[in-house]
Specification:
The chain is mainly α. It contains five helices and five strands. The longest helix has 17 residues.
């Protein structure tokens, strides 16, 4: 069909943001770290790196409820903000389809919220 985008040459991947001489190197792709909409709201300083990625995965997939967020120590206003943020992020996921995602995690790390975003943005059922 003429309206379909051309097939991808390779699957989208995660790239690591780097600095050279104190300046961030421009990379082709979409930045998903802080302060972007797609940043992981579960800070590693509070939860540890691996756990923050697991919490992000459960949150974005809808498995982390308001009650669960409260048990993690978030106040009611923070819980409400996290639930509203999740809705915004989920609605914006189709914009990431086909794009490389950029964050600060080493590409060899198995703990990165960008991997979850890549899977959700490029998986079945995503509409652009």
């Amino acid at each position: 069909m003429a309206d379909e985008p051309p097939p991808l040459q390779r699957p989208p991947r995660r790239l690591r943001k780097v600095r050279r001489g104190g300046v961030a190197v421009k990379l082709p792709g979409w930045y998903v770290g802080r302060p972007s909409l797609f940043a992981n709201p579960f800070r590693p300083e509070r939860f540890g790196h691996a756990r923050s990625v697991e919490l992000h995965r459960g949150w974005i997939e809808g498995r982390l409820s308001a009650l669960g967020l409260g048990r993690l120590g978030f106040c009611p206003a923070e819980v409400d903000a996290l639930l509203r943020l999740r809705a915004r992020v989920r609605a914006a996921l189709p914009h990431l389809a086909g794009l490389d995602l950029i964050c600060w995690c080493p590409v060899t790390s198995r703990w990165c919220h960008a991997d979850t975003l890549l899977r959700l943005a490029n998986g079945p059922g995503v509409r652009s």
